[in-house]
Amino acid sequence: MKNYLLYLFCLFSSIALYAQDAPESDIEGEIDPSKPTNLYTQVNTAFEYQSGKNQDLYGLRTNIQYAFDANNLVLAEVPLLYNDRTSKFGLADMRIRYFNAVKRNITERFIAIVPFADVSFPTGSFENGLGSSSWSLAGGVIFGFVASEKLSLFPGISYVHLTKPTTDLIPEAVKFSSNGIGLQFNASYVFSKSLYMFINPTPTFLNTDGDWKTIWSGETNLNKIIIPNKFKMNVGWLPNFTNEVHVFRLGATFYL
Residue 198 pLDDT > 60, yes or no? Predict the structure, then answer.
């Protein structure tokens, strides 16, 4: 685990050092992706490494976000991964999300109310170690608050439902659906016009056959705008402490 954290630190440091020498843009009317309730059409592609207890996965994760207007956006995520335990490569579980900013600028500090729907499809093969064989359905709302010139907060809550696994590799006697609550405590900190970070703890509380379980997970993501309104790079760490899985991503975003 120490090696993974060192690897992540080196990536963060490299981007931060680059940002110190990068010129600030004077372009007016720039988009502001440091606030996740701002919705923009974009394509994101990231190289991904998943470190697990019994297997590691490598590959490419692409998501396409289309903003119908300033308040409505749909996201489709397509991961192509390789599992080193099974030596299989292919499509993992896909995901679709929809966001609708129903209210903006409620007060000077309270900037957005954004309901969302989130669906993950069991498109990946469970047998090949590329999928869960369950549907994941969630619906909730995110709120946006400006705490200071540099710090913004985006807490959210959602209802989560996981269907019973369909794979024959799991005995029918232990196949259960789950229901629960997902939380997020996303904080966005802006270092400069071109450099910002998200820190987002995301605990989930699931009830499976009467047994409650807490899944402790989160995301840290450092973003560097290279060309305003057009292109940025990012590096991320997504730990799932409960399941002992750590995901590292190095990606690029193109705004359209």
Answer: yes
Distance in angstroms (rounded) separating the CA atoms of residues 197 and 15:
12
Q: Determine the residue type at 16.
A: A
CA atoms within 13 A on the CB side of 41: 5
Q: Is 142 helix (H, G, I), strand (E, B) or coil?
A: strand
Q: What distance separates the 2 farthest-apart alpha carbons in the chain?
A: 62
Give the tens place of pLDDT for each residue, 125-134.
Answer: 999 999 999 9
Q: What pLDDT, in 10s, does the model give residues 79-99? A: 999 999 999 999 999 999 999
In the predicted model, what is the mean pLDDT of residues 110-136? Answer: 97
Side-chain half-sphere exposure of 22, counting CA atoms within 13 A: 20
Alpha-carbon gap, residue 217 to 30, rounded angstroms: 32
Tell me if residue 209 falls in helix, strand or coil: coil
Sign (positive/negative) of CA torsion 104, 109, 115, 116?
A: positive
Against a cut of 0.90, is the pTM above it? no
Within the chain, strands assigned E span: 42-51, 56-69, 72-83, 88-91, 94-100, 103-104, 110-121, 136-146, 151-162, 178-192, 195-201, 204-208, 211-215, 218-227, 231-240, 245-255
Enumerate residues 6+ apart whose C-beta is below 8 A from 153.
144, 145, 147, 185, 186, 187, 188
The Cα–Cα gap between 256 and 149 comes to 27
Among 161, 240, 177, CA closest to 210: 177
Among 11-25, 47-61, 67-81, whose mean pLDDT is lowest? 11-25
